[in-house]
Amino acid sequence: MTDDDQKSDLSERFRGRFDDPTDDQEEEELDETEERDETHATQSEQSERSIPKKSSKNVKNEMNAMRVKNVKESWSATSVYLPEFLDRQLTTTYKHADLEFEEEFGRSLQKTRYYYPLLVALGMERIEEMEAHELQERIEDLEADAAEE
Question: How many CA atoms lie within 13 A of 5 on its CB side?
């Protein structure tokens, strides 16, 4: 497959064809592209990566997980208990993000499908970057915020 064909196929997928994750031809082409990219990566590039590269199968499974029709039926449910002040901040932050998102894109930022997963993913990324003493400082900050309430 030529570069022009690959670009054309990618453009076609970006135009809204994400709703059909079962299209085997697209998945095969994605596999070929990823395998070619992995082959061309130099050993120094691979050793510089701090996060292990996901296999194409894992990437596809994660992409398919985000495309399910009903998240409440397909995703795992996790209860999170928050102090009242954090729960209010969570709601307020969502409302601000939703308003900005709707003004920019003309549609709502779905809370369960996008906001909560983003919140968790971004939070995990940040926590992974923190050292233990930074975590302790943030815990102390949360406790101080709670005492002010």
Answer: 7
- What DSSP assignment string belongs to 35-80? HHHHHHS-HHHHHH-SSPPPPHHHHHHHHHHHT-S-HHHHSPP---
Count Cβ atoms below 10 Å from residue 96 Cβ, excluding itself: 10
| Structure-derived torsion over alpha carbons of residues 39, 43, 45, 47, reported in degrees to the nearest 10 | 130
pLDDT in tens, 84-138: 999 999 999 999 999 999 999 999 999 999 999 999 999 999 999 999 999 999 9
Name residue, tokens 């102090």. 83
Q: Please state the pTM of the whole predicted model.
A: 0.56
